[in-house]
Amino acid sequence: MVDQFTKRVGTVQRLGWYPIGSDPSIEMTNSWDKVTALGAVTDDGESFYCWTEDSLKTQHGLWLLKALQEEFGEELVVFLDRASYFYTRDLWEYVSGERATETVSDSSVACVRGEDLEVWYFPPKLPELNPVEGCWDRLQEWFKHRLVPDLSTLKHQIQRGLPTVEEPNIWNYLCP
Questions:
Q1: Plot region of 35 (φ>0 → left; ψ -120 to 50 → alpha; else → beta)
Q2: In this predicted model, what pLDDT tens digit does every residue of 48-74 receive, in sequence order?
Q3: InterPro entries, from UniProt (predicted)?
């Protein structure tokens, strides 16, 4: 199971309680700088995380599949969401060696099978089916009260925050 999490450099705005008549203010920073983490969880609880500063494109989806094969072995079944960088003919061609794909009744791609790699897609607009989504909730909680003033701090905080994420039991998602 694979998913992604993007965190930008900047201040997170939150409501708060202040004395009547006070005029609280904080310095706000915002930036286009960001880090997108890609994470994968296996059926036996192993995990794989990597990140990039770039906006995700098809090349990142292909790179991730190759990295997963290197990390976990040649024969894999990977579950992906339908983000544009995963749900693309170039990725399907990499997996199967051809641009043809298996479809379901609404003509959307459900699965792409290759010799040593299968990619299955979650139905659209149902992130609750992907157990990695919960990992990102925990990582978001890690950032809750942390100021991220620049890109190097963001990278450092992601490295510190990832070990706090507990990998979910994906069998609860696959076999309800």
A1: beta
A2: 888 888 888 999 999 999 999 999 887
A3: RNaseH_sf, Tc1-like_DDE_dom
